[in-house]
């Protein structure tokens, strides 16, 4: 089975946002980056499916040269090779633009299964997967908790979809197909030293994006959220802060 | 015209649809007519309910193939409806179902989609849609590009269902345009894994723990804190994903929704998926060492400190 896993490089969770001069985007060069966590679960699922059914796992990513960091990490964790659609402008690409950038080289590869995270920790559109599925002309299902693969069957892929409020549903569909994976579906593996060494020799195919990519979404302002509440911040040493909080919860909020 | 696509399951309206109607009324400002469509099989009852809003028309889009949700059927029917109605905007609530089919819909009709919108503003003379980015650390005003219609999904709880202007709208039944042979997904009936043994929605006080707790052994600290508060123990998604607490104690979009008298968030940064499950709580306390954590945006009381120092101090104080 030929499996693609689409991964994104995003600022780390600890990163404190810094805005550019026009206050329309972040200062990308000042951020530290990591693999989008939901995509890490998609990668793990891809690796497990390969271990069970054979084939290969190809990581696919659209972004500037810096994206190589997470591509190398994915290769170190066990992906076989990579496809990198590289362009500086793709750092801030919206979901539709990123999917358009990846479409042609991914179509050419002819994957049986395409996995990706359910959304990104940076822009968080939660669009990329279903958009790419439509561009590739394959069926999809989202927020997947379990993947069963039966080669040669008409409904070759059976997945467990998460619905809201503790409900689930099984859905079958033919391959090729695209799934967005829910975080927590599996236990992530980490790269071993051997994996890191092996990754250095693995192929990363670089492709230029198609000409004439036009963003679908324009950010006209980026700012810190406005507070909906007046938050009383309680400082001081722990014992003092605890005393003050309990007093306020009793007397002010009447919550105790 | 603004087209709202409401959501129903088994003939029951998803309440979040009213929030999408409220957002449409705000976006219209009385200038654009609003139509509300509901897709399904046998949706006359839901259409009747929706007709109580001050809108131009309710469209009951009926087809047998829409009876059980599949993204392929809903994309087909919605694309046909949009082609026929030619709206300026299409609004929906940002539910799991919306997330499943609307990005595909936008791609099929080749139009821009803005998701998870929390406010509608005006920028450069056009509508801009505010949405969280970077885990809620920032908000972006986004202007969709290209020709109309622009598709917009609104975050659950961001617009007030009780702000919907009431009225009496005519109902028009439309035959849903679906080629059943082109539906590739075969869904089975939805099910619940286990009966939820813990009903957190009834708890008066909740202590919820997040990533900041760092390890399974440390969950005991949160447990003691919950006991001291006389509270139920709950958690954000990553804690349950790691198996440190059972899934049934998860608060958020994929877990339970709660509104207790007191909600104490310990080591929870406040990702939106968590906030939607608890922001209705009467008093919210946030304890987090990151002063920029989004949880402080909605907290009544905040302590920026190491939870491993504050929790024992609180336990001692509550025991006094």
Q: Could you explain how this protein is built, in words?
A:
The complex is a heterodimer of chains A (256) and B (320). Chain A is an alpha/beta fold and 256 residues long. Chain A has 2 domains: 2-207, 3-Layer(aba) Sandwich (Rossmann fold), CATH 3.40.50.620; 225-256, no CATH class. Chain A contains 6 helices and 13 strands. In chain A, the strands form 2 sheets. In chain A, strands 9-8-7-10-6-1-4-5-11 form a 9-stranded mixed beta sheet, sandwiched between helices. In chain A, strands 2-3 form a two-stranded antiparallel ribbon. Chain A starts with a strand and ends in a 5-residue tail after the last helix. The model of chain A has no long low-confidence stretch (mean pLDDT 94). Chain B has 320 residues and is α/β, with parallel strands linked by helices. Chain B folds into 2 domains: 2-182, 3-Layer(aba) Sandwich (Rossmann fold), CATH 3.40.50; 200-319, TPP-binding domain (Rossmann fold). In chain B, the strands form 4 sheets. A 7-stranded parallel beta sheet of chain B has the order 7-11-6-1-4-5-12, with helices on both faces. In chain B, strand 9 (126-133) and strand 10 form a beta hairpin. Chains A and B meet through helix 3, helix 4, strand 7, strand 9 and strand 12 of A and helix 4, strand 7, strand 9, strand 10 and strand 13 of B. Strand 9 of chain A pairs antiparallel with strand 14 of chain B.
């Amino acid at each position: 089975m030929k499996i693609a896993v689409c991964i994104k490089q995003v600022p780390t969770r600890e990163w404190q946002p810094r805005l550019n001069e026009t206050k329309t985007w972040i200062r990308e060069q000042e951020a530290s980056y990591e693999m989008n966590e939901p995509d890490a679960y998609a990668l793990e699922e891809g690796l497990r499916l390969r271990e069970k059914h054979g084939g290969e796992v190809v990581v696919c990513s659209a972004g500037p040269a810096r994206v190589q960091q997470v591509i190398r990490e994915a290769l170190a964790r066990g992906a076989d090779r990579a496809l990198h659609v590289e362009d500086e402008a793709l750092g801030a690409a919206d979901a539709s633009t990123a999917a358009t950038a990846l479409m042609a080289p991914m179509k050419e590869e002819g994957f049986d299964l395409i996995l990706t995270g359910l959304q990104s920790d940076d822009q968080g559109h939660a669009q990329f997967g279903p958009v790419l599925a439509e561009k590739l002309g394959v069926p999809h299902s989202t927020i997947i908790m379990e993947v069963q693969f039966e080669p040669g069957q008409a409904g070759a892929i059976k997945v467990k979809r998460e619905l809201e409020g503790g409900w689930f549903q099984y859905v079958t569909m033919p391959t090729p197909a695209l799934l967005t994976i829910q975080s927590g579906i599996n236990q992530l593996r980490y790269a071993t030293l051997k994996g890191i060494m092996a990754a250095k020799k693995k192929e990363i195919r670089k492709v230029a994006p198609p000409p004439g990519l036009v963003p679908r979404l324009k950010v006209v302002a980026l700012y810190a959220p406005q507070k909906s509440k007046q938050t009383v911040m309680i400082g001081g040493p722990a014992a003092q802060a605890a005393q003050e909080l309990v007093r306020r919860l009793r007397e002010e909020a009447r919550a105790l | 015209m603004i087209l709202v696509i409401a959501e129903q399951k088994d003939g029951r309206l998803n309440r979040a649809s009213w929030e999408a109607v409220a957002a449409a009324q705000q976006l219209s400002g009385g200038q654009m007519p609003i139509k509300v469509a509901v897709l399904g099989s046998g949706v006359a009852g839901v259409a009747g309910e929706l007709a109580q809003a001050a809108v131009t028309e309710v469209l009951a889009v009926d087809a047998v193939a829409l009876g059980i949700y599949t993204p392929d059927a809903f994309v087909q029917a919605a694309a046909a409806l949009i082609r026929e109605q030619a709206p300026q905007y299409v609004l929906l609530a940002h539910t799991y179902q919306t997330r499943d089919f609307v990005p595909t819909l936008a791609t099929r009709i080749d139009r821009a989609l803005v998701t998870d919108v929390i406010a509608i503003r005006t920028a450069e003379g056009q509508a801009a849609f505010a949405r969280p980015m970077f885990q809620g650390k920032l908000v972006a005003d986004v202007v969709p590009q290209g020709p109309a219609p622009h598709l917009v999904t609104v975050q659950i709880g961001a617009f007030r269902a009780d702000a919907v202007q009431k009225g009496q709208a005519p109902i028009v039944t439309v035959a849903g345009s679906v080629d059943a042979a082109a539906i590739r997904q075969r869904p089975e009936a939805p099910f619940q894994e286990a009966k939820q043994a813990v009903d957190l929605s009834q708890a008066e006080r909740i202590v919820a723990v997040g990533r900041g707790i760092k390890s399974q052994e440390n969950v005991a600290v949160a447990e003691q804190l919950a006991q001291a508060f006389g509270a139920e123990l709950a958690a954000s998604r990553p804690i349950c994903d790691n198996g440190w607490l059972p899934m049934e104690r998860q608060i958020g979009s994929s877990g339970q929704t709660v509104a207790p008298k007191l909600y104490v968030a310990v080591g929870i940064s406040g990702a939106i998926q968590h906030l939607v499950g608890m922001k209705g709580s009467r008093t919210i306390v946030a304890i987090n060492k990151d002063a920029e954590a989004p949880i402080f945006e909605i907290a009544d009381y905040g302590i920026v400190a190491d939870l491993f120092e504050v929790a024992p101090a609180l336990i001692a104080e509550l025991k006094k």
